[in-house]
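Trying the structure run again after the queue cleared.
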Amino acid sequence: MRELKYEDVVDAIKKMIIHTAYVLPDDALNALKKAYEEEKSPVSREVLKQLLENANIAKTEDRPLCQDTGLAVFFVKVGEDLKINGGTLKAAINEGTAKGYEEGYLRASTCEPFSRENLKDKIGYNLPAIIHFDLVEGDKLDIEYAAKGGGSENVSRARVFPPAAGKEGVIEFVKECISDAGGNPCPPLTVGVGIGGTFEKAAISSKHALFRTIGSVNEDPEMAEMEETIKTELNKLGIGSMGMGGTETVLAVHIESNPCHIASLPVSVNVQCHSSRHTHIVL
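Done. Tokens:
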């Protein structure tokens, strides 16, 4: 049994949150550069240029990439032979999250659903974190983190289709979601699509799909082909960067597919803005 100190997990979480708020990961940065090179609209090219300048300023001056520093979302794989010494893993992730957001001078965005009272003084700075745990073999702690902003989350959707809807129904649903969203989620976008499972499994899969490296190819050839088809269709919508019109509305479409019930076809679309702030560490 391998032991990992509670304080070490807290410190690692704090550092990854601050770093991710300031430094756009290479996959997202390279995707924006590629979009800038291929964009046909002069207006959207200028917007993309400004987004790239913003990323450079954020990195060199230790400033948040966006004023919406998001909710903290984690996908955590916990090795069966790993023990956290000094406290629980969930508490360590939440404490690290609170410290990262507060010490990094990042906006605390969690609030009560109806009173809209900010919870930073009640339960902690930008808490609770959204954590998805998975128990796996081994003695490692594998942590994927993303800052999820409100603008992109607000246009995300889930629906359960009849099986007869098929691929065509899924593609049309994704197009409908992005078309209705327009410039609100701050394109160019990464689009996560969860297919199959149950209602909640599809939603979680669509969120996790956003963590995949932008530009990577789906391991399932059928899903890889479907991703390219959807991306092409979405870029035909002409929404462009920040909704200014153009040919590069979407940087990537990532699909996660799961087995489902014979009587249903759950589908979820989760959207990420141009500032795809995500990172991955193993402790």
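The longest helix spans residues 42-61. Worth checking whether this holds up in the mutant runs.
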